[in-house]
Each structure stands twice: as structure tokens, then as C-alpha cells.
Fold these 3 entries.
Entry 1:
Amino acid sequence: MSAPEEETYTTWRHDPKDLDAFGEWYQLVYRRLFYFAAQYVVPDDADDLVQNALVRFMSGDYVEKVDNSRRAVSYITQMMRSEAWNARRRHHIASMETLGDAEVPSGEPTLEEMTAASKAWESVAEALSEDEKHVLRLLTLGMGNREIANVLGQSYSAVSSRIYKLRRKIKDLGII
């Protein structure tokens, strides 16, 4: 974090109506915010994600709570992560609803095959711990290892190891 960044944030914080100070601070931190946003969504949507999170930050009472630029960037990054997660969840739910109305195309598994697969997954569910089931749910939502690490509050390597062991366990049960 640079001194000009901290100075412009402090100026804006003391006078939130000073849009010039805000503009200077925003230009100084935009690249960093865009970099974080691009990790959560496709780069085309990253700019919108940054702006939406910034509007939420400014419209709430966060400005009074946050006393330095680093914390402000941290709050805004958390808001972007939360918004990206909610958008991904809404998309997943919407896609599941449309799948429910779809007809089963030819070549798809029969009811008997699906029942057998369902029973196989029930045996997997019995063999898994609650933590493993939670990780499996997050994986089925389409989350990557880094996102799961953020949700669980664990390191990336710890989550990667857990997922590797989970996949190995499922494979040993003969499901995949």
C-alpha cells in the first residue's frame, strides 16, 4: 500500500462528499480490486463486480468503521467474493430448475440404472464423514479448491489434500 493511497483514503474518509479524494483513491486501488474480482468471475464481469461492491461499501456504514485503505480494500474484496458466490449459486439453482423441466434425451440412463447409481451414492454417503459430505456438496456446486478453502477457512493445500483423499475414498468404494 502506498502513502498516496492511504492519504487519499483518509481525506475521503473525513469528508465522504469529497468526490475528488474518492476518485483519486479509487484510481489507486482499482487495479488491485480488479485483480481480485477477476479471480471470482470472468474478466468481462469483473468491472461490474468491483463497482457493485464499491457502491455497497459506500452506501453502508463501512466508511466510518474502516480506518485505513488496506481494510477498505479487504472489505470490498469480501463483498465481491460474497456477491460472486451468490451469483454463482443463483445461476446453479436456475440451471437446476430448467433441468427439472427438460425431457430425458435418448441414450440417457434408464430408471433402473439411475436407481442403481443412487443406491451406490447412498453407500458413499454412509461411508463419508460430515466434513467430507460438506466438501463434496461444495464441489458439486462447482466451487474450486481455492473457493472451498475460503469457505472453510483453511489453506489451499489442506483443502486440496482433503479433496484428493475424498476422491480416493470414493474411488475405493467403486463409484468412480
Entry 2:
Amino acid sequence: MNSQPIAILSYQLSANDYLRAAEIASSNKILSLLSVTTLTYGGLRDLLRAVQILPDVSYETMSASDYWLSSLVCLLSSFLFLHLAFPRFSPTKRWTIARTWKRTIQMQQPITLSIAEAGVEFQIQGFRDFRQWQHYTGFRETKEMFLLFYSGSLYRILPKRIFSSPEQMRQFQDLLDRNGVASQKNSNMD
């Protein structure tokens, strides 16, 4: 690190921290997922009609097998929409993150965070990652954490519980502001 640290903080992240961060990071994609799901349903329905598996008929004149096939397409599209648009309620995402956290020792190790005028340094079990402020593309803030993005979908997690006082957290927020790290919208994930 090139300058003296303003604060040195130590913390550990839980599986719930990683899950919550994944929810926050994906929250801005909900509107695009709505259109993708609509297109997916429409595209599947049109594809099935094109290969004449699902005829273009009304429900009143539809045979039982066509009705069930159409219902299955609707059900799968709905599941895909719920799974992608509402990650908080995604059982597979929760299971994957919890499983990864249990199997990856590095995710369970203490993290030392050094915050300075020049940037932020994360240290985890002998690994150091220092990034100057200009390399961060933005941040998201909720009631419980900050996410510092250094790429479109790559970020570092900073739980608010690591700050010893509201004043220390305000100093961090001022550093973000002074160094041009822009806040990103949270899309109802507070």
C-alpha cells in the first residue's frame, strides 16, 4: 500500500454474507430478466408451434396433451423467471453458495482490510489485493454492507459491522465520494 492506512479492520464473512452480497449484486438485473423471461416463454411457445408440437389453437379446442405441454412450458418459464429475478428465494443459489463456503477454506478465513487515501487492500491468508480507488467501478450500499465493484460483476464485500463507529463509516463513505467511486442503484434490495 502506497499511503498510511486510515483504518485497519479485521473480519470474517459468513455464508449468509456471501449469499446477501450475491443478491445485492444481481438486483439490478431484474428488469432485464423480466424481458428475457417474457421472450423465453414466447420463444419456446413459438418454437413448439413451428415444429408443430404445440398447434396454434385456443384452449377451448386444444387436446389434453397439447394443453399439458403448453402448461409445462408456462410452468418452466415461470420457474426460470422466479429463479433469476428473485435470487433471495432461489433454493439452488442458496445451496450452491452454502456448499461453496463450506468447501472453500479461504472463504472462511479472517480478512484484514486496510483503507487508505490511495486505495483499499484486502489480505486473506497470505494473499494481498491492493486496488487504487480509480480501479473501482462503483459501489452498492445497503443497511448491512457495502459491495465494492472492480468489474461488472466482481466485487469485494465489506459488512458494515466491521466499522467501530458511525463516524468511521462516514469517513469511508467520504473516501468513496472524494475518489469518484460512484454509487450504483440497489433496486429494492435494501
Entry 3:
Amino acid sequence: MAKEIFMPKLSSTMETGTLLQWFKEEGDPIEVGDPVFEIMTDKINIEVEAYEEGILLKRYYGVDEEVPVNGIVGYIGEKGEEVPEHPGGTPEEPVSELEKETESAVEKRLQQKRIRPPMGRYGLRRLHEKKRKRRERRFTPSREADQTDEFIKKT
């Protein structure tokens, strides 16, 4: 079975990579660890190595083309295996019935779910009043003055 060659994500900000050069041609044998192509990101240039062994069956992008992160760059497999003409399969690939049912179920569930305040209608207001009162008790001017005076007396 043919294995995909993906554009690696080399940094947290990387969205695309520019393919600088191919080291292998379609039909060339590839061993694990062989450099397959070189890419340029916004920070570095790096050679991408093969994780599978076999024959380079398909290259989807040419030199100086931008490839999205995790996009399929090519395929490695056995000689004679069939691979899609376009990266990621055919662009007009129909959506399966299961995917349609899953999407509709998720939409229905989101419509049914209501977001309510965690403590009822007036609960949040009461909670904020309690916090405000605690803060006032902690930082009253007379109390701070008393604590400062006690500290000065101790030293």
C-alpha cells in the first residue's frame, strides 16, 4: 500500500513551506532515512527524509511551489501501485452518508444546548457582591493602619 509523504510542521507558526528541490525522481528507489526533498520555511531550510522504503511513485509539487503544512507532497510504495492524480485524493470527492449524518447530529445537538448562568438569574450578582465585601473587609484603611502600627511597634 502506498504511503503518503507529508509536508512537516517544523515550528508552531509554520503554515506553509516552499519546496526548494527534489533529491529523488519519480520511479527512484528510496530507503528509510534518504533525503527526499528540501524545504524552506520562514526560519530555516531543511532536508526531509523518508520514513518508508519503496519507490517514489508520485510528486505533486514542483520546485519553488508553496505546500501547506501536513499537505501530501508525494507517495512512496511498490512499483505499479496506483495513487491519486491530485494531492489528498480527487477534489470532487463526494461526502459520504455517514459524514452527512454526523454533521447534522452535531448541528442539532448544538442547537439544543442552552447556555445558562451557573448560579441562576441572580446568582452571579450575589457572588460578585460577596467578593466585593470580602475585599472591603481585607483592605479597610483603619485595618491597614492598625497592621502598620503593630509592625512598627514590633521592630
